[in-house]
Specification:
Chain A: Pfam families: ABC_tran. Chain A: This is Putative ABC transporter ATP-binding protein YbhF. Chain A: InterPro entries: AAA+_ATPase, ABC_transporter-like_ATP-bd, P-loop_NTPase. Chain A: Keywords: ATP-binding, Nucleotide-binding, Transport. The complex is a heterodimer. By secondary structure, chain A is an alpha/beta fold. Chain A has 11 helices and 14 strands. Chain A folds into 2 domains: 221 residues, P-loop containing nucleotide triphosphate hydrolases (Rossmann fold); 66 residues, Alpha-Beta Plaits (2-Layer Sandwich). The two termini of chain A are 40 Å apart. Chain B has one domain. Helices cover 79% and strands 0% of the residues of chain B. Chain B is globular, with a radius of gyration of 19 Å. The chains are: A alpha/beta, B mainly alpha. Chains A and B meet through helix 2 and helix 3 of A and helix 1 and helix 6 of B.
């Protein structure tokens, strides 16, 4: 594991507002770090500090060993950045835009040609290379921004909401592209689309009100859910309220509730244990026939709310 | 300072002028106004002299109106569209970006200026002008355009709004020109001490441009424009740095 991005006690205050307030985490090669948090939590501000666009109030950022406050040019040279909204020069064509980026990135001659062609191909924009960027659809604009970010094959890739505003197909394409590149890069993506946690990330950092409230794998994040390993059970022969009473009395069950939608109950295990088998055995012992039984993996939206809301409320 | 970066940014920016009709509209209006003012306001024929003084003497006034139209987009547009975040996270320094953009605008103005060459041909056809004087006139006008552009570039970094950038640049440019204009100086000389009047006058574009346009190359005039450009561009870089993320 090679550390590519190291962030320590990073903070940015705008007057009284503490947009980012002591954020610490690091990203290694091969990791795709999903940077989660509600709008206004400080995701973009943190990314702007990592990329050297904003100067931090406090703390350090090191990218590939370079300190962004003392050697911003080396930091900027070793990362690719897709800012929020994928800004570009609207009157240029993707072709001339990418060539400009290649120039600035120090590529010339055959290297430049190859880099532009490869980035355009990977971002799937080859068919719009000679149309002004301002005439392109949102999805294509985003992909032009992606092509720009990956053009110089940077060891570190930072993307601020790379799939925001894309349709499901485009989202899938962008995720595929990120997955393809994940192996030999350190990638940070910010998102508030929770399905991307499982689709993309090997690790998650959740921030709320400028502070890190979670740092771990997607599985660990899901495990924080009340619904993690909860079992949804439907038994046809008996009344749900009766079933509920029976289940609640079992020694491995913490709680149970009626499903708000559909027929059946949800059973919450003690200490998030796996109870599917034990539960089905007890039901069969009663001579009841199980119509359906499955365990839930945990609900990210619920975890997201529970870990980001309290601290938001605390600040106010 | 990486010269190549300045060159790449300049090239991109210069191309940007021609990506839209702006460049052509500007050049046509510049040529029309320059020609019109030379013949009608400057009395090119009636003076009966084979020189381009009527042409050059009106440049400060032309530039007040036209240069802010070029400079207003330099930074305001970057900030409005958010592309400044892209530019400033590429491995370039603020100074490289400021210089690249400034040189692009300056080169564009230079091109518009050179396209006035038919006037030079006309005056050579009609008489025997001192082409050295005409040459220094072009150089002086070009230098002065740089001064106006540096002011405009700096002001365009203050706002995201191009219209505000235009109006503010126009006003500041006007002040820099008027500081040497007779009426204004008379107003000051009636009550202010002479050194102050001289100081105000020495800040004016008119004072420094007038000599050059008559063919007198004084190092002080050239230094004046060079220093003026340097100071405004330095301020420009500071402003970009401070306000890029707003």
């Amino acid at each position: 594991m090679t550390l590519r991005v190291e962030i320590e006690d990073l903070a940015k205050h705008f007057g009284e507002i503490r947009a980012v307030d002591g954020v610490t985490f690091s990203v290694s090669k091969g990791e795709v770090l999903g940077f989660l948090g509600p709008n206004g939590a400080g995701k973009s501000t943190t990314m702007k500090m990592i990329t050297g666009f904003l100067a931090p109030t406090r703390g350090t950022v090191r990218v590939c060993g370079y300190d962004v406050s003392t050697d911003p040019i080396s930091v900027k040279a070793s990362l690719g950045y897709l800012p929020e909204g994928a800004p570009a020069y609207a009157d240029m064509t993707p072709d001339s835009f990418l060539k400009f980026i290649a120039d600035i990135r120090g590529l010339s001659g055959a290297d430049k040609k190859r880099a532009v062609a490869s980035a355009a191909e990977r971002a799937r924009i080859l068919n719009v290379m000679y149309q002004p960027i301002e005439t392109l659809s949102k999805g294509y604009k985003r992909r032009v921004g992606l092509a720009q970010a990956i053009l110089h094959n940077p060891p570190v890739l930072i993307m601020d909401e790379p799939t925001d505003g894309l349709d499901p197909n485009q989202k899938h394409e962008v995720r595929t592209l990120i997955n393809e590149m994940a192996e030999d890069k350190a990638i940070i993506i910010s998102t508030h689309i929770l399905e991307e946690v499982n689709a993309l990330c090997t690790r998650n950092v959740v921030i709320a009100s400028g502070k890190v409230v979670f740092d771990g794998t997607p599985a660990e994040l899901e495990a924080k859910s009340r619904y993690h390993n909860a079992v949804v059970l439907t038994v046809n022969e008996i009344d749900n309220t009766k079933l509920l009473q029976f289940v609640k009395a079992l020694d491995f069950v913490a709680d149970a509730e009626l499903l708000t939608l559909g027929n059946g109950i949800r059973v919450f295990p003690k200490a998030s244990a796996h109870i599917t088998i034990a539960l089905s055995e007890r039901i069969r012992e009663q001579g009841w026939e199980i119509a359906s039984l499955y365990a839930e993996s945990g609900r990210l939206d619920e975890v997201f709310r529970s870990i980001t809301l309290p601290s938001t409320a605390g600040v106010k | 300072m990486n010269m190549l970066n300045i060159w790449f940014i300049m090239k991109r920016e210069f191309g940007g002028y021609f990506a839209t009709p702006v460049a052509y509209v500007f050049i046509i209006i510049f040529l029309l106004l320059a020609g019109f003012s030379t013949f009608y306001v400057g009395n090119f024929f009636a003076r009966g002299e084979a020189d381009l003084y009527p042409f050059f003497s009106l440049h400060p006034w032309l530039y007040i109106l036209l240069i802010p139209a070029i400079s207003m987009r330099l930074w305001a547009e970057e900030r409005k569209s958010g592309s400044i975040e892209l530019l400033m996270t590429l491995p370039v320094s603020v100074f490289e970006a400021v210089l690249g953009k400034f040189f692009a605008a300056w080169a564009f103005t230079g091109l518009a200026l050179i396209l006035n060459f038919p006037l030079w041909i006309t005056v050579n056809y009609l008489g025997n002008p001192d082409n050295g004087v005409i040459f220094t006139g072009f150089v002086g006008s070009f230098l002065m355009a740089g001064g106006f552009l540096a002011i405009g570039s700096c002001i365009s970094a203050v706002t995201k709004n191009q219209v505000i950038a235009f109006v503010l640049s126009l006003i500041v440019s006007l002040i820099f020109v008027l500081a040497g204009y007779g009426i204004v100086l008379d107003f000051f000389s009636s009550w202010a001490p002479q050194p102050l009047v001289d100081a105000i006058s020495s800040f004016s574009f008119l004072t420094h441009f007038d000599a050059i346009s008559k063919g007198v190359i004084d190092l002080r005039d050239i230094l004046y424009f060079a220093a003026l450009i340097a100071i405004w561009l330095f301020a420009n870089a500071l402003i970009v740095n401070a306000r890029k993320a707003d």
